[in-house]
Predict the structure.
Amino acid sequence: MITRRSVLGAVAAGAAGVGLAWHPRAAMAAEAFAVKFTDDEWRKRLSPEQYAVLRESATEPPFTSPLDREKRRGSFACAGCDQELFSSATKFESGTGWPSFWAPIADTAVGTERDTSFGMVRVAVHCSRCGGHLGHVFDDGPKPTGLRYCMNGLAMTFKPLAA
């Protein structure tokens, strides 16, 4: 049976063979975000791989991010602007190879937009503070929301909960 997850996995596996997969991003006005930098400033702040994901909407190869295997209590923040995005309390093992969550840390932490790249209709997720591309959200997640926020580990940092 062909499912959305298997199609996404096949696309990602193909992308893994060539490194980061790139797809066009709908233009978002930089003025809409509180954190703004020029393209050169973003390139100085981020690694080339982080820049590709956060600023050009690339997708990291599956099963490559240490954050997919992160089990400690804490929060996941935007690698571009340090805004907290997700709590470890909502993280779950999706089997997709990317860190997955069933809800953002706050309704205002992320924004979404329609993504029709690769011949699919998906919902892209971005940081509401800097507009950085984080990943996609799907409706095949666990309760209580039924959502799966499938995020690029390169787009985030992990902040362990203080003991």
User: Anything to note?
Assistant: The two ends are 46 Å apart (CA to CA). Residues 74 and 161 are 4 Å apart (CA to CA).
